[in-house]
Write a structure and sequence with these properties.
This protein is an alpha+beta fold and 592 residues long. The protein contains 19 helices and 19 strands. Strand 15 and strand 16 form a beta hairpin.
């Protein structure tokens, strides 16, 4: 499924509709729970553009220079944005294994400049068919401590990234499937220099967790010391895995020796999971409608359920649309106050209502309804923080007990614009640092199932929307985003960061579109996350702004700053691409 407006429709009428905020999801009845493939949808205002009309060149922004170069190699060979995405993901799985890889899942937004289509690809992991609602409860009936749950085989969901990439390649690839895997295969064989961030995370992981034996062996030297930045690592097992995938397609991953290795790792003692060969063989990615709505003069498209990211980002923007953000810029207390309050409202709704919409009713239309968001804006005072914040009652909603499981930092994001103007915005993850900390066939396996609620019911016995169920996808916060203006591509962005992803992405969008910052300046703004007490990056936040916010009643939680990994590409008003790479990671933004 995709969204498209025919070029024959008149632009002025469509732009008027965008300004009025009419391009939102249509409603779903309370009597029929929606599914990701049946939500009625109003197409966004996006036009087809002839390939010859694109003059801006190409660009990749990703979290590691080796991954960017792998993607650029594919673009130089004539590949599309999707061809390059395969190369970037394969390389990230090698040089940034703490964050993403083929043992995890991903969400991709794709814009086809030739047809005007915007497609959301869902490669989210799913729970095994023998998963149970109480599988993260201890013998005492209480939820396991999060670190303990991560390191069990029960945390491992069926990986979805490879199948998703194959689906996208079938529809948008130009080079042979095998070609895009070649850069990572070559690098795995000859060896790579450990990047600074990987070395830092290895030290932290060894200091704070008990790594599984195979993971421990991979990230340490023969003498047992943590790998240091610059040390050379070869991963021939990973090279062999990629060769099989290149030769046999996704089937070579979900069946045969790779699948057997995944199941063996997931069901290994202690604390085995229930993942089976049939779970792997039966996995299917989904091609979905993006969630889109107007924001000022723009159309913003994001990911819908099972991700809460697109809905929550659009909720924040739909709230801020009624407030003067341009007049209250990044150096003002009021600008940050409005941003914080909009976040608090969006997170409350997200926690209450969003989960896998094949299992629970998600009121997507109601949550993004302009009238509903306007009612939420009425709760915001310019001079005082809200004393309490609760989920609202959007049209079509069925209230469920809230759940705040949000994941960790084992995620990455990249943006690719190819020479024809096609765009990929893709967030990819193994969930926590090094995922489940178990390896199979040269790669780390995810712990994505810890994104489920550990409790199946609340204290009153009410079912929690994001509870574990066989074949269900855990709620995500991943927020790959593409923004359009005047019917064409304008901006793409995304980030890792658990449930804070929503805040990071919204910050970058506001910084770029409302505050007129360059993409890099917007990425470099302090991360200010408001899911209760505000958590802000002390080293980047002006102390005077913090004190001003406290004077309005905003409360701040002590702790380390938030670590995003924002990557973005903007089509400037001069027709040139401008990229941004988060300095909190090792990334770069480069053109071929």
């Amino acid at each position: 499924m995709s969204s498209r407006i025919s070029p024959s429709q008149g632009r002025p009428a469509r732009l008027a509709q965008v300004a009025a905020g009419l391009f939102v999801l249509a409603g779903c009845t309370a009597a029929q729970a929606p599914t990701a493939s049946t939500i009625p949808f109003q197409a966004p205002v996006i036009e087809a553009r002839p390939v010859t009309a694109w003059q801006a060149g190409a660009m990749i922004a990703a979290a590691n220079p080796m991954a960017v170069e792998a993607g650029l190699e594919i673009l130089r060979a004539g590949g599309t944005a999707v061809d390059a995405a395969i190369a970037v993901q394969a390389m990230l799985g090698l040089v940034e294994p703490q964050s993403s890889g083929i043992g995890g899942g991903a969400f991709m937004l794709h814009y086809d400049a030739r047809t005007g289509d915007v497609v959301a690809y869902d490669g989210r992991e799913v729970a095994p068919m023998r998963a149970t609602p109480d599988m993260f409860l201890g013998p005492d009936g209480k939820p396991l401590p999060f670190p303990d749950a991560v390191k069990t085989g029960r945390s491992i969901g069926v990986p979805g990234a490879v199948a998703m990439l194959e689906m996208a390649h079938r529809e948008h690839g130009r080079l042979p499937w095998a070609r895009a895997w070649e850069p990572a295969i070559a690098m795995a064989e000859k060896g790579f220099a450990v990047p600074p961030r990987m070395a830092t995370v290895i030290r932290q992981a060894q200091a704070f967790t008990q790594l599984a034996p195979d993971a421990q062996a991979y990230v340490t030297t023969a003498a047992g010391t943590p790998l240091a930045a610059g040390q050379i690592v070869r991963n021939t097992a990973y090279a062999d895995t990629l060769r099989r995938i290149a030769r046999e397609g996704a089937r070579g991953f979900y069946e045969g020796p790779i699948a057997a290795a995944i199941v063996a790792a997931a069901t290994r003692q202690p604390n085995p999971g229930t993942l089976s060969l049939k779970d792997l063989k039966d996995y299917r990615p989904n091609r979905l409608e993006p969630v889109c709505r107007g924001y000022r003069v723009y159309v913003v498209c994001g990911m819908g359920p099972p991700s809460s990211g697109g809905i929550a980002v659009l909720s924040i923007l739909g709230t801020l649309e009624h407030l003067d953000m341009a007049g209250n810029g990044p150096n003002t207390v009021r600008g940050w106050h409005y941003f914080i309050e909009a976040q608090r409202l969006a997170y409350a709704d997200r926690d209450m209502y969003v989960a896998d919409d094949r299992f629970v009713q998600v009121p997507v239309a109601g949550l993004l309804d302009p009238g509903y968001l306007k009612s939420r804006v009425a709760l915001i005072s310019p001079d005082r923080a809200m004393a309490t914040v609760e989920a609202g009652n959007p049209p079509g909603a069925v209230r469920k007990p809230p759940d705040s499981n949000g994941g960790n930092t084992g995620t990455s994001h990249f943006v690719i614009v190819d020479r024809s103007g096609n765009v990929v915005s893709m967030t990819t993850t193994v969930e926590s640092v090094f995922g489940s900390q178990r390896m199979a066939a040269g790669f780390f396996l995810n712990n994505q199932l810890t994104d489920f609620s550990f409790r199946p019911v609340d204290d009153r016995g009410q079912a929690i929307a994001n509870a574990v169920a066989p074949g269900k996808k855990p709620r995500s916060s991943m927020s790959p985003t593409i923004v359009f203006e005047n019917g064409g591509f304008r901006y793409a962005v995304g980030s890792p960061g658990g449930n804070a992803i929503i805040s990071y992405v919204a910050k970058a969008i506001v910084g770029t579109l409302d505050w007129g910052l360059t993409p890099q300046q917007a990425v470099d703004l302090p991360n200010v996350v408001a899911r209760g007490p505000v958590v802000a990056e002390g080293a980047r936040m002006d102390p005077q702004l913090t004190e001003g916010l406290k004077a309005l009643g905003q409360t701040f939680r002590d702790g380390r700053g938030e670590g995003s990994g924002l990557h973005a590409v903007l089509l400037g008003k001069d027709g040139k691409l401008v990229g941004a790479a988060d300095s909190r990671r090792d990334g770069v933004a480069r053109s071929p």
